[in-house]
Structures are given as C-alpha cells and as structure tokens.
Amino acid sequence: MSDGKVALLDRLAARRALLHRPARRFATIPEPSSLGLPERGRWLLAGSFLVEGRLVQAPGAAPWEVPGAEPGQAAEAHGFAWLDDLAALGDRPARALARDWTFRWIARFGRGRGPGWTPALAARRLGRWMSHAALLTEAQGRDPATLARAASQTLRFLDRRWTTARGPARIEALAAILRAGLALEGMERSVGAAATAIGREAEAQVDAHGAIASRSPEDLALLFALLAEAEAALAAAGRPVAEPHRAALRRIAPVLRTLRHSDGGLARFHGGGRTVAERVERALAAATAPPLRAEGAAMGYLRLSVGRTSVIVDAADPPAGPHGHASTLGFEMSSGRRPVIISCGSGRAWGAEWHRAGRATPSHSTLAIEGFSSSRLGRSGEEMTERARVLSAHRQRGAAGAQLSLVHAGWAETHGLTHRRELLLAPDGRSLSGADTLAALTAAEKKRLETVLKSAGGQGVRFALRFHLHPDVRPTVEGGGLCVGLRLASGEDWSFQFEGDARLTLDPSVYLDRTHLLPRATKQIVLHGVLVSSEARIGWTFAKTEDTPLAIRDLDRPNPPDRP
C-alpha cells in the first residue's frame, strides 16, 4: 500500500473516531511512568530548539511551530516528547508551559488535523498524556474533560490503526490503549483485546533469546519498560496478563542487564543512547529474571566485567534497516560510574549529515580502513547494502583473565582483508589489552589485496585504530608521543600504550548525547597505520596506574583535577 493511501486511511480513522461518544472524565489518574531530562526542559522554557543541527531561538513558539524545521522534525513534536522534559524540570513555569502547549495542541489538532495522526505519533502522545495526566489536569481553569475527550478519541484511532504501525511502535500503541482504557471512564472495552494483542506482539518481536531485530540496546530498554508498565497497570486493575507478555519480560530482563555498563548506562550502539536510566532501573527492579552474570553474550554483544571495569563489544553483523551502524567489533569501556571508551553515538537528532557520520566506522572505537566503513550505505544513503559478516566470536576464561577473539570480513570484497580483534580483561579488572590485525587469509583474498596494493602505487592501505574518549576523561600525551595518560572524573588514572608500526595522535572527537542541546567536544586516541604486505598488527593496553587504589570513593566531580 502506498504511503499516500496509508496517510489517507489514517486521516479517515481520526475523523471517524470523533463519531464515538468520548470519555468525559478520568476514572483513575495513571501513575507517572515516562521520564524526561530537566536540562532539555530548561531549553524549552528558554525558547531554544534544535533544528537540523542548528540552535534556533523561538520564544513563544510551540514545538510544532518552530521556524525552519523540516516536515519530519516538525511532525515529531506531535509525539509530545517535550512533555516528558517539562515534567522532569517540574517547576511552576515548566508545568504551566506543559499544560499550555498540550491544550493548544488539542484545540488546533484534536479533531484529526495535522501530521500527528499516525499510529506511531498518536501512541507516543497518548502514552505521555496518560503518564502526565496528573500534571495536565491539576491547575484551576483546565477542564479535565477536555483532555479526557482528546485521549479517548486518540484511543479510538489507535484501536483501528495500530496494526499498520511497524515493529516496536505496535507495542507502544497497544500499551497506550491499555493505560488509557483503564484510566478513562467508559473506555474499558478496549482493554481486553489490547491485552491479548500485546502478548502476541511481544512474542513475535522478542526472539527466544530476548533480542529484537534492531539490535539497539535503547530500543530494547524502552520496549521492556513499555511491557513492564503495561503489566503493572493490568495487575493493578485486577486484569489478567497474557503469558506471552510475561514471558517476553522474562527473556528481555537478563539481556538488558548484560547490555548495561558498570555505571548503569546502556551501551550506545545502532542508534541507541544511554536512555533515561531511572525508567529502566524501575522496570528491571520489578522484573523477576535470572541475575546478571559476570560476563555473557546478549543480542549479538559480548560483555566482560571484572571489578570496576566493564567492556561491551558489538560482536554480530549490523542489523538491516535505516538505523544500523558500521560498528562491528567496536567496544565501549566503563570504570565504576565513569564511561571511558565510547561510541560517538547517533547523530539523528542533529540532522542527516550528523546521522550519516555517526553511523560510519570512524565514529566507533574500532579499526577502519581509510575511506571505507566496515559496512557501507547504498545509493539511498539510508539502507546498508554491504554489511560486515562476523566470521567468528569466541570467549574464554583462563589464568590470564577473560578473553575475546573476534573476526569480521567487512573489507574482504573491497580489499581482500579481514579484521581480527583480540581483547583480554585482567583478572582484577585493572587492565584491558587488545590486538588488532588486518590480514588476507585465503588465496582469493591475497590476490585481491595484491591488486589493491599495486593500484596504491606503493603507498599501501592506510588504516586507523580509534578509541573515542568520554568528554569527562582528561587525556595527556606522554612519553614522547608513545602513550596517553587518562584522568577520570573519579580521580582514577589510566595509561594507554601500544606496540607495532603505528603513529599515535590525540585528535578531536564528538559525543552525541541527546541530554545536551549540541554535540559535546571530546578527544579520541588514534593509531595510524599502513598495511604494505599481507598483514598488519597493532597491540595496545589500557591499564590503571599503580597508584590508583583498588577502591575509590567516587563522588561527582564536575571539574576533576589535572594529572600531577
């Protein structure tokens, strides 16, 4: 079915929803669930908006009225993510603005007009109205019946159109129907069918190992939170919860715990961020699932964790679709509460160019051949038509520590080369050692590499090994350019050293984090190498310095002292 026909059917369904008798009041006020970020609430209160990577000042404008916004970005405002942030800020001006914008939206678009009447956007909007119903109806002069009528119309729309949503948006729509049906007077008839359907969708979208197709840890976390909140709402109302619904929660919980660093934040791969940790923590606390293992595999990621150090590696092929990243064999590392090695993150919030750059291999802490990501985008610039294949991924534990050995063939067709990465986390967690090797393995690959080397005119194949640092890490080049000292905000000191034929530089990088309005400047350690034969190998080590104690009282230090 064409996009135009789908949009027409959505519009007709929104108008037909007006023909039903609306709810006049809330039977119960739902418990708040979705959480935002106070800092983003402050930006909104100041009239600051991000438009395609540019900061736009538009005091007095509602989020859907910001000048210069592309149609897609303007439409996102109809999902009401901004309501989470204003509620998180929570002071009197923020609460007043949240109510003003909500009732302005209802007056302008509540009768089925505007771009917000798609199943995905309507589900987000209805879910947030339910989550913040107490805030939206608390002030004098705000008629709760207005919100109840608008919410019941949206529920009716989703009743008809949720099946046209894709992937996790279906579960979000069903979760919104459940919560609204339980909260709004006269809307209980929708609850039973939605409760059954959410179990079917959970069973279909969450595989036997607790993974989802996007391989995004954040997507998995938000899906888990939706399922957990829907389960809690049904249980509180004395309604049955479908067994497939409960089973999906049991499958996801241990996976989600494996994908969290020692600081509680999620690994930032394949378009995902660290998400709002409190919401995930609350959902996990209510879940009954096996405890987190010290190390394990989950959704194509491998995790090592010893002492204060956790390492998470992308050890599977990139997912199909428009959001997958060329991050194969990339890793992140945290020490206690402090991220150390990171991925740059998704640039989607800052426009198409940032989004494309964030998906490329150089934006991840791994090896990249100059000019070639390990997976490459097709002509559309969205879908990855050439995806790296992971040939092997092994984990073992011995006297030397926990070891990973991984190989991918992302450049086998272009250069005849495979990338092998070996990682070793010491038994006390105080050092992470690695070795990265580019090599032609088969006769066909060696022949292809010979052709590439000849065409390079003796210049060889240039490559770079990158380690992106969190903005709170303070790096210093030492030892005549042969090592880097790292001071963490906790006061820990780490040292980076390498061996092999490479040149070390400390280059600018960015940390793309939706909790900040603009990309944050940071640094990356880069080892530059040139392959001139059939193999090139570089070894490296991150190690805590000897004077860093085993136990640290890790307090928040916004301005950590420089290294002595």
Give a structural overview:
Mean pLDDT is 90; it is low at 558-564. A hairpin with a 2-residue loop joins strand 1 and strand 2. By secondary structure, the protein is α+β, with helices and mostly antiparallel strands. Helix content is 34%, strand content 24%. The longest helix is centred in the middle third of the chain and has 20 residues, at 217-236. The strands form four sheets. Strands 3, 4, 5, 6, 7, 8, 15, 19 and 20 form a nine-stranded antiparallel sheet that branches. Helix 4 (81-89) runs antiparallel to helix 5 (92-109) and helix 10 (189-205) crosses helix 12 (243-258). The chain starts with a helix and ends in a 20-residue tail after the last strand.
Q: What attributes characterize this protein structure?
A:
9-stranded antiparallel sheet, 15 helices, disordered C terminus, Chondroitin_lyas
Sheet with most strands = 9 strands, antiparallel
Beta fraction: 15-25%
Number of strand segments: 21
Mean pLDDT: 90
Helix content: 25-40%
Question: What overall geometry do the principal axes of the alpha carbons give?
Answer: elongated
Describe, in short, the structure shown:
Strands 3, 4, 5, 6, 7, 8, 15, 19 and 20 form a nine-stranded antiparallel beta sheet that branches. 34% of the residues lie in helices and 24% in strands. It contains 15 helices and 21 strands.
Q: SSE layout and pairings?
A:
Blueprint: H1 3-16, H2 38-45, E1 48-51, E2 54-57, H3 71-76, H4 81-89, H5 92-109, H6 119-131, H7 133-136, H8 144-161, H9 168-183, H10 189-205, H11 217-236, H12 243-258, H13 277-286, E3 296-298, E4 301-306, E5 309-314, E6 331-335, E7 338-342, H14 352-359, E8 367-369, E9 376-377, E10 384-386, E11 390-398, E12 401-411, E13 417-425, E14 431-439, H15 443-455, E15 461-469, E16 474-478, E17 483-487, E18 493-499, E19 503-511, E20 520-531, E21 535-544
Antiparallel strand pairs: 1-2, 3-4, 4-5, 5-6, 6-7, 7-15, 8-15, 9-10, 11-12, 12-13, 13-14, 14-21, 15-20, 16-17, 17-18, 18-21, 19-20
Helix pairs in contact: 1-8, 2-4, 4-5, 6-8, 6-9, 8-9, 9-10, 9-11, 10-12, 11-12, 11-13
